[in-house]
Amino acid sequence: MNEDKCHLQKDNPNSRRANGLDRRDFLHGVAAVPVLGLFGYAVHKERVFQRAQTAAKLGAAAPAGNLPELNVALIGAGAQGSVLLDAMLKIPSIRLRAVCDIWTDYSLKRAINLLGKYKFEANGYEDYREMLEKEKGLDAVVIATPDFWHSRQTVDCLRAGLHVYCEKEMSNTLEGARHMVLAARETGKLLQIGHQRRSHPRYLHCYEKLLKANMIGRIVTINGQWNRSVQQDLGWPNRYLISQDRLEKYGFKSMQQFRNWRWCKGLGGGPIVDLGSHQIDIYNWFLDAKPKAVMASGGIDYYSRESHEWYDTVMAIYEYETGKGPVRAYYQTQTTNGSQGYFENFMGDQGTLVLSESEAGFRGSIYRQPEAPPWDEWVRLGYVSAPRVQMAKKEIEINALLDVRESVSPDEHQIPVEFHDPYHKPHLENFFNAVRGTESLNCSAEVGYETAVSVLKVNEAIEAGKRLYFQEDEFKV
Ligand SMILES: NC(=O)c1ccc[n+]([C@@H]2O[C@H](COP(=O)([O-])OP(=O)(O)OC[C@H]3O[C@@H](n4cnc5c(N)ncnc54)[C@H](O)[C@@H]3O)[C@@H](O)[C@H]2O)c1
Q: How much of the chain, in percent, has pLDDT values that exceed 90?
């Protein structure tokens, strides 16, 4: 699934490897060193890697033509709705027929105007129920409203016969999320949850190639974070004020709450749900496991408690029991200092895999533990780039008086997956292709539910002030 986007060969080297490298490759790799010297050896490996890349690109699937058209509506055209709209405008054979948003003078107008520029005559609605009544011939709907609306809107859209792409967090309550899973099952319609990393070519490459090849060995610990700098509350232009009646009709007490719903109990789940759900979803996916327990500390340590009901700082530790042994996974989100942004860091006994969705930070690297078998074959196959050779660093290692207890720095290899599309485009494409019947969903309702169970428990653990356990049947609907 989506393998073509990774631009990589489909060889499965597992059959040839017992110990990370076969004898022929090992001899070939070692023999090159004295002839070329250390720097020449790196250049040689880089060329081998480049050749593998080019070969893989030539073999990649051609872009699909003549896709059946799909008629699509968007519900919720705020910050994320605009991002999704922008991505959908770059996907062929999508007809954007309608937009619904309760902020009619601002979000709705902006979306309809944008669509007009792309020659889409989309109809605008304030209430999604009116949209469902009047819009005939829709195939699918994309939902990007605040979390507390997801369940009602998704269930109604599925029952109206539409396939649904619903943003994360699937719902702010497990009950709401459960209704969504059941409605998808009852109606037989598709429900994709917006954990878009599940369709990201770099994440898919790491899961399908590097982890399956066991490159980093047994994962024993994970750490990850999403740190953000201090942010002001979101405001609104006075001329776009929504009437109090309308705000209340849609569940908001005030304009302040309408704009800053994430921080409010009953509407969102705070940063651990908003941000953490993306990455804790990756922990579960990459470990192929669900957590057994979680303990967490968190608080409203910085912002005003008047406007912030959820924790601005959370530190959580999950415990997993995987087929290969126990794993402890730390996750932190805080909103007062953006140090090092966001990433997930998987630490195994043979290497470390660090990944981020952010193109602005680092795209991903994998580090070989010095005592692990060489990775020449993975470089040859284009799974990872040649190691970064830092001559200056080597000089220091040779000349400096290192303490004998100090670990040698591991080799850094990059993840060779170029990605220049909007972050959400592959996940939307996966959804639309699933509607057309050519792919299966990368994040079904059931998967989204498991993530919601894993993440929502953190807030409970903070309140309880103790380790909470997950029962196996909690993850099932
Ligand atoms: N996948 C991601 O990377 C990602 C990133 C950001 C946000 N999100 C998710 O997207 C969703 C929206 O977040 P946002 O940042 O765009 O919020 P936002 O407040 O900027 O936008 C929400 C929009 O929904 C509209 N709205 C509110 N209630 C509505 C209703 N009942 N019917 C129709 N429209 C309604 C609002 O008027 C607003 O325009 C959330 O679930 C959030 O978690 C996902």
A: 79
